[in-house]
Design goal:
Helix content is 39%, strand content 16%.
Length: 565
């Protein structure tokens, strides 16, 4: 029987899982793996500049592809600690990232060795599972388990530590076992009696509303959700960060709901008498855990694949555990023959009028191309410039939060954000991963200047690997969200808020990318179209009005808000 090293066993196991792309940063602890990747005909290696941003690439890749994203940290110690922010982000987003981390030699553990850190303890709170290989011949088994765990409901990141001595060890090769059957598992149906009860509640609603979340988006079940909405005559609002759960072109689409959503969707949630929470936890970004954004008297039907999420934050009339898309289909079947009442039709007509009024208001604001450049003008220009297949990635921060509900998400999935981790420095790197997962689609990454400054080195990764995304840096020269809080609640006593930046368009050119700059609103349309058509990794530095700030988290500063007294 042929001999194989632990490093070659890792690569063979990745190939058995059907992995096409691996993101990573080389280091001495993982050299056996990288050497084996050199010979692989099936896997493309994407060398990154920083482990954190590399995990964001794997995160974006996983969410866009529907499979796992793989990151390989070649160095133990600092290479592993740099993974923490990326894994915490993936954990908050339920993103199936498989992190393979080179680790200290087994004989050196607990000896204060060079670059020693307890990687097991480090990753445990921010992954679904963290473990360390103890025998070289078990590497294929452990890699298979890593994928199985990451992709099993509820999805999330895992970290597998690979001691360098085991990667170098040679042993007799055995057939690498095939991937687990998790890929072919059938979606879980909801309890039939509970589905019938839920259908009766929905049929009797006068103002029905569906709030669609990650369970609809990640399951790619927008068609099932819309079929149910059409049968009920129910608008569909979406939880923040999942504004692409259904196509925004559908007349039933209300956009994102809650304190970070738009006024039309939020008004629906405050007025609805029956709310179907379809694949959403009704969590922080959707509700701030208050009835300020939900009708207290509404009957809530909650559907989620995770039992602990059902009824966790709000009392519910009915809870159904299972796959959001499958249960949407069951409900639609149970409502066969349902006639939409005149009262519901009037409710839908009012919603349609309000939706059109909001769109017209946004377009009017965007057409006012005054200087300095207002965010609404940029968003309007983007809506007119991007193709129908465009995918957007975004950071946290005031400008991205303003943008999230204003972009056109026509072909789900089309939006990838930090979600509950609220991270800046995510968008550009995530967009590179998304583009590799969806090479035929246009990918636009929106960032503030502060977040982009954290991740500019990955322009080199984009250029080296010909990953042609368009990154729009909304450059207002400050940490916008925090400066808004200092302005609104701390008497404009600014400290640490301003960020001096280099010309990012020139920096892009130094890396070999295409650089563009917008100083005047009148330049927006032509520059954006040129960036989208340039056929290279593109960075667009847009000089946005530094006064165009908004305090999203006013609830956190009620104690300092004179308007609340």
């Amino acid at each position: 029987m042929a001999q194989i090293t632990g490093g070659k066993a890792v690569v063979a196991a990745l190939e058995a899982e059907g992995v096409r792309d691996v993101f990573g940063l080389i280091g001495s602890a993982g050299m056996e793996i990288f050497d084996a990747l050199h010979d692989s005909k099936r896997i493309r290696f994407i060398g990154v500049r920083d482990e954190r941003t590399g995990v964001h690439m794997a995160d974006g890749y996983a969410r866009a592809s529907g499979g796992a994203g793989v990151f390989l940290a070649g160095q133990n110690g600092p290479g592993a600690t740099n993974l923490v922010t990326g894994l915490a982000q993936a954990h908050a987003a339920y993103s199936p990232v498989v992190a393979l981390a080179g680790s200290l030699s087994s004989a050196h553990v607990y000896r204060d060795a060079f670059q020693e850190v307890d990687q097991q303890a480090l990753f445990k709170p921010i992954t679904k599972k963290t473990w360390t290989v103890t025998q070289a011949r078990r590497i294929p088994e452990m890699v298979r388990e890593a994928f199985s765990t990451a992709l099993a409901p509820r999805r999330g990141p895992v970290a597998l530590n690979l001691p360098r001595d085991l990667l170098a060890e040679t042993f007799e090769a055995e057939d690498i076992p095939p991937p687990q059957s998790y890929r072919a598992s059938a979606p879980a149906e909801g309890d039939a009696e509970l589905v019938r009860q839920a259908a009766r509640l929905l049929a009797g609603a006068k103002r029905p509303l569906i709030i669609a979340g990650g369970g609809v988006k990640n399951g790619r079940t927008h068609a099932q959700a819309l079929a149910l909405a059409a049968r009920l005559g129910a608008p569909v609002a979406m939880s923040p960060g999942h504004g692409d759960a259904i196509s925004n072109d559908d007349p039933l689409c209300a956009g994102q709901v809650g304190p970070r959503g738009n006024r039309v969707a939020s008004a629906l949630a405050k007025d609805a008498d029956v709310i179907l929470a379809l694949g959403t936890r009704l969590g922080f970004n959707t509700t701030f855990y208050t009835y300020d954004n939900l009708n207290r008297a509404a009957k809530i039907i909650q559907v989620d694949q995770e039992p602990t999420a059902v009824g966790r934050f709000f009392p519910i009339a009915l809870g159904i555990v299972g796959d959001a898309g499958r249960i949407a289909s069951q409900l639609a079947d149970a409502l066969a023959g349902h006639e939409i009442s005149g009262e519901v039709r009037e409710y839908l007509a009012r919603f349609g009028d309000e939706r059109k009024a909001l769109a017209a208001e946004r377009d009017a604001a965007g057409r006012a191309r005054s200087d300095p450049i207002q965010p609404g003008a940029l968003y309007h220009a983007l809506r007119g410039a991007v193709p129908a297949d465009a995918i957007f990635t975004m950071d946290a921060g005031t400008l991205c939060l303003q943008a999230t509900d204003q972009m056109p998400y026509r072909e789900p999935p089309s939006l990838f954000t930090p979600l509950d981790f609220g991270l800046v420095g995510f968008s550009y790197a995530a967009g590179l991963g998304v583009k590799l997962a969806c090479p035929g689609r246009t990918v636009v990454s929106l960032m503030g200047d502060g977040g982009f400054g954290m991740t500019v080195s990955e322009i080199g990764t984009a250029v080296a690997n010909k990953i042609n995304t368009v990154c729009i840096v909304m450059n207002n020269g400050c940490w916008g969200a925090e400066k808004a809080y200092q302005r609104d609640f701390f008497g404009a006593r600014y400290i640490g808020a301003d960020v001096p930046n280099p010309p990012y368009d020139k920096l892009a050119e130094l890396y070999g990318a295409a650089g563009f700059r917008v100083d005047k609103a009148a330049q927006l349309d032509s520059v954006l179209r040129a960036a989208l058509a340039c056929g290279k990794p593109a960075i667009v530095d847009v000089q946005v009005d530094p006064a165009a700030l908004y305090s999203f988290r006013r609830d956190s500063f009620k104690h300092r808000d004179p308007k609340a007294k």
